[in-house]
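During the no-cost extension, the postdoctoral fellow (Dr. R.K.) reprocessed legacy sequence entries with the updated structure-token encoder. One reprocessed record is reproduced below for audit purposes.
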Amino acid sequence: MDVSVCICTYRRAFVLNTITSILAQVGLDKIRLEIVVCDDDPELSAQALIEKAAADSPISIQYLSSGASNVSVARNSCLMEAKGRFVAFVDDDETCEPDWLSQLMLAQSKFGADVVKGFVRGRYPTDTPLWIRAGDPFTRDCGPTGTRIETMGTGNVLFNRCFAINNGIRFDLQKGPGGGEDTDFFLRMNECGARMIACREAIVNEVVPDDRVTQEYIRRRFCHFGRMHGSGGVAHRLRAQTAWSFLKAVARISLLWPFMLKVIERSPEFFQRTYFRGFSNFWYNIGILKGMTFGRGSRRHS
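Re-encoded structure tokens follow.
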């Protein structure tokens, strides 16, 4: 097997759309492909859906169950059960453009990469507030194809499975419930010498639901990111460095507090984007302080 496309799913029927987009890939005549889906729901809610899709599929679709409500367990299950030389992870709220996988493979071959990170394009509901649409938080672009990068998430990534296995790299089970397990995984790939690049032509679309384009969700999202950063930093910094990071976060919060005032929806796009950056950075730094003080915390599988 050349490529195992892996999807971890948790109570999201949209995963069938993800699978359909993978089955519609073009330019893969010489590439042997399988799909591996791991259900992280203890109630195995995806089992019937995936088994029906597998029965109708022209390629192998393997259903796994972790039932752990811990995404690291699900990711490791995919990693160990995959038969491909390369593993490609996509999320269960994403659909892949028809040339997605061929572009990842082309970039891997051209640059001799161990890890290739694709482009994630946010697809927003029609009634998304202007300031969130201007900030575009669900689009993730790591730069032009060939750009070297040091870490990433698992939504739209291809990597050499043997590199990870041979270096003993797995997704950290302790980070699974709280998030950040994918960032940690690729940081360790980088530390082991993996060549990691971006590929802007390999595109997936993340379909953003209505409940994620609210001020409250953006607040929680960036506070969580900051909390992961803060809790991870404490473990690796000297006491003086930690104190300096704490003071910097306090200073940024002091400067950014005006962005808690509601933006005027009729403002020009530039001001909408500026407001988004100020608002998200305020809560990111709040999260850093929480992480440094109280630790990582936890969140539901997203």
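Residues 269-294 form the longest helix (26 residues). Confidence is low (pLDDT under 50) at residues 234-239. The remaining legacy entries will be reprocessed before the final report is submitted.
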